[in-house]
Design a protein that fits this description.
Number of domains: 1
Number of helices: 18
Largest sheet: none
Strand content: under 5%
Radius of gyration: 23 Å
Order of helices and strands: HHHHHHHHHHHHHHHHHH
Structural class: mainly alpha
Number of strands: 0
CATH class: Mainly Alpha
CATH architecture: Up-down Bundle
Oligomer: single chain
Length: 432
């Protein structure tokens, strides 16, 4: 009787084990496909953002703009996160993650085409409008992309995987100055003739082709996430409760500071390097040196993906934020080659900040994740506001003293990381 019961139990267990193994294999395959698709949009997001940063010194030279007016490029680009975050989240709830990703890539391609047309007319307001559309597409990718990874990956793998994806984002930010400087900062891009327009347009034409290919890939895999927990529709009062949680609110402030500091340094680094008291570089050379700043973020993200598998994310974030604060302080003193090296090295500290801040700020409920992601993406408007504040200070008191603004941003990030790491205990309990 015991043997018969054992055989019956074994016969019942075998199909269940096979079914569980099949489900696990399907989940792993889905996670791998989502990750592979995400590589493309992460790369292009970084490439386009870095390409836009090169526009600031070029527009400053072409149109005789001061730091403040030239930085309107970043205002137009990053304010889109604030303008479009809520509509994008509504679309996400309505049509799902994969379709939103396809739509975002298509809108980015349309923004690139609009910029090419605006550049041909040499109309600065039209350039800003096209950039607003371009960044609107990136908002789709930012809100849906990271949450998508958390849906298909186990909790202990989500932060390293997002960090690894941000490494591909950094590859795009490194390649953009290397390739784009030859077009946007060369002498042939100066003027109003067809050759000058073509030099500015060519990098963006390439972006259009690649983005449309990525959009097709997402549309082709639009049913990939069937079976995962869908985003929930929540009433307005519940939405306010999600956004106003201490953890998300503090994380959004830290994200505001991080993006603001990173974009500010990336935008003004070319101008910093051409200063006689720093290294007095030529504009094209300085533009290419900016790739080292973004390259530090690239190397750090690939290394950080491994480090975050062994050390608590909050502890790693605290160390990098405090280090960045010290590096910016040294650069603000204007110590020639030392100043140039320290400001470029801030890119290495930036490497793990975005994915770590994102993961440390999200609520525990998956259904509320899109709304938390919306709030964090709205905080990216720091990339519009902080550069404008820094640029206004640079016009009034000089570029070097104005670096105190990104320095303060890194202090804010360090404070958030300390609290999420458990210090002081009273505040840490409120964000738990």
């Amino acid at each position: 009787m015991t043997i018969q019961s054992g055989v019956a139990a074994l016969a019942t267990h075998a199909p269940q084990a096979a079914a569980q193994s099949s489900v696990k294999a399907a989940e792993q395959l889905r996670a791998a496909r989502v990750f592979n698709l995400s590589i493309g949009n992460c790369f292009m997001g970084g490439f386009v953002v870095s390409l836009v940063s090169l526009l600031v010194p070029r527009l400053k030279l072409l149109m005789g703009l001061d730091y403040t007016r030239a930085s309107l490029v970043q205002l137009a680009f990053h304010s889109s996160y604030l303008l479009f975050a809520l509509p994008v989240t509504a679309w996400l709830v309505r049509i799902g993650y994969m379709r939103v990703m396809a739509l975002g890539c298509a809108i980015m391609a349309a923004g690139c085409l609009g910029f090419i047309a605006a550049a041909a007319l040499h109309n600065y307001p039209l350039v800003l409008l096209a950039l607003l559309a371009l960044a609107g597409g990136i908002t789709f990718l930012q809100i849906a992309g990271n949450v998508m990874v958390t849906l298909v990956e186990p909790a202990d793998r989500a932060v390293p995987r997002i960090t690894l994806l941000q490494g591909f984002n950094s590859i795009g930010t490194v390649l953009a100055p290397l390739l784009g400087a030859s077009f946007l900062l060369s002498d042939r891009s100066v003027g109003h003739d067809a050759e000058a327009w073509l030099m500015v347009a060519l990098p963006f034409i390439g972006c259009v082709v690649i983005l449309l290919g990525i959009a097709w890939a997402y549309a082709h895999n639009r049913n990939l996430l069937e079976g995962t927990e869908p985003p929930q529709r929540v009433p307005l009062n519940a939405l306010r409760c999600v956004v106003a949680t201490p953890r998300l609110l503090a994380g959004s402030i830290a994200m505001f500071g991080y993006v603001g500091a990173e974009v500010t340094i990336g935008t003004l680094l070319t101008n910093y390097l051409v200063l006689p008291e720093i290294i007095g570089a030529e504009p094209v050379t300085a533009g290419r040196l900016v790739s080292l700043y973004w390259g530090g973020a690239m190397v750090g993200r690939f290394l950080g993906a491994a480090a975050l598998s062994h050390w608590p994310p909050a502890r790693v974030l605290t160390a990098t934020a405090l280090t960045a604060t010290g590096l910016v302080a040294v650069a603000a003193l204007g110590n020639g080659m030392l100043g140039a090296a320290t400001l470029i090295a801030v890119g290495l500290c930036n490497s793990i900040m975005y994915p770590t801040l994102f993961a440390l700020s999200l609520p525990d409920e998956q259904g509320a994740a899109p709304y938390a992601s919306m709030a964090l993406c709205m905080a990216v408007v720091g990339g519009a506001i902080v550069p404008m504040i820094t640029a206004a200070l640079a016009d009034s008191i000089g570029l070097l003293p104005s670096l105190v603004v990104p320095g303060i941003c890194y202090v804010v990030i360090a404070m958030f990381a300390l609290v999420r790491g458990g210090y002081p205990a009273a505040l840490a309990r409120r964000m738990a």
